Task: inverse folding
């Protein structure tokens, strides 16, 4: 079976090297081993976004996938680093996003039909966001965009000024990959060498971000908007009834769960029961396999999926067919031959 990994991270060094030249915050620094660390401020934050060599060598990453015993195509997304483009001054954020997106387009061209990529977008200025979006999709041919869970430290991805951004994303029919940014909730989840934040903080953040899209009416006003939630939908499937019970003051025309079930999600959860519940909640046509590599082991991701007790028909959808349909990837054999 040919697999599509819908949650895969490759980061181009050029963007990090560019941010190393900044003297103020945010900026990138390297440690004695040459690993990159993204610093938002002067160190007051307990959590620093760090990376290691596996993030930056796409050839080796694909070799790792080849070692799984399957044909695996990958969809590159940014993950928590997507916040950086909205934390920079607006024009710098635009330039950094353009550089990132050009690197992604280059990867698609180098590995046609094997590597697909989504683009970065800065959200601190709506006009710039639209400019970057149109360039990424129409000029570079990227498959979608990364939607950070916050605009820098501002959690309001549902701000009224961003309505044209969601209008255009819906019009283009592209997926928006919603991922936590680590820029909010970190103060209340400090300590334990990051264990509390990494295990719970990201689940909380992506859940809050998605609920903002629901309660603000963004999902109601944009019925064809494609939002792909990371990490099996965070806490929302499990708390869906609570969302319906306590969100009446938002005056939505339908229960909150109606909109929650319109999201797509991945299988990134080291928990077979959690994967199965995501499939039960969203439906077998809404869930895509993801490994979160290099944050998680693809071999383990596949093992947990095998343990979820899904039928062969459902697994075939999750492992590839859904991603090709939802993300518009096309036929893998035809794409590889072009």
Result:
């Amino acid at each position: 079976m040919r697999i599509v990994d819908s949650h895969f991270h490759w980061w181009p060094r050029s963007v990090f090297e560019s941010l190393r030249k900044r003297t103020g915050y945010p900026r990138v620094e390297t440690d004695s081993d040459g690993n990159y660390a993204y610093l938002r401020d002067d160190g007051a934050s307990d959590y620093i976004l760090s990376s290691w060599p596996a993030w930056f060598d796409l050839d080796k990453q694909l070799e790792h996938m080849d070692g799984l015993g399957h044909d695996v195509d990958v969809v590159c997304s940014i993950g928590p680093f997507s916040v950086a483009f909205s934390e920079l001054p607006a024009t710098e954020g635009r330039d950094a996003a353009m550089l990132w997106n050009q690197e992604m387009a280059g990867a698609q061209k180098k590995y046609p039909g094997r590597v697909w990529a989504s683009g970065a977008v800065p959200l601190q200025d709506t006009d710039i966001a639209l400019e970057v979006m149109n360039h990424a999709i129409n000029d570079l041919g990227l498959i979608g965009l990364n939607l950070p869970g916050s605009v820098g430290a501002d959690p309001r991805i549902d701000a009224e000024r961003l309505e044209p951004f969601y209008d255009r994303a819906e019009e283009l029919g592209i997926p928006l990959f919603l991922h936590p940014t680590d820029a909010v909730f970190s103060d209340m989840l400090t300590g334990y060498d990051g264990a509390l934040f990494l295990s719970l903080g990201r689940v909380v953040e992506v859940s809050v971000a998605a609920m903002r899209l629901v309660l603000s009416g963004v999902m109601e006003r944009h019925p064809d908007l494609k939002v792909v939630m990371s990490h099996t939908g965070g806490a929302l499937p499990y708390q869906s009834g609570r969302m319906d019970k306590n969100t009446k003051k938002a005056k939505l025309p339908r229960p909150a769960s109606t909109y929650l079930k319109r999201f797509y999600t991945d299988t990134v959860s080291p928990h077979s029961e959690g994967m199965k519940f995501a499939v039960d909640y969203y439906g077998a046509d809404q869930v895509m396999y993801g490994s979160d590599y290099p944050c998680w082991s693809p071999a383990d991701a596949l093992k947990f999926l095998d343990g979820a007790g899904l039928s062969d028909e459902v697994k075939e959808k999750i492992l590839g067919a859904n991603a090709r349909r939802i993300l518009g990837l096309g036929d893998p054999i035809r794409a590889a031959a072009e």
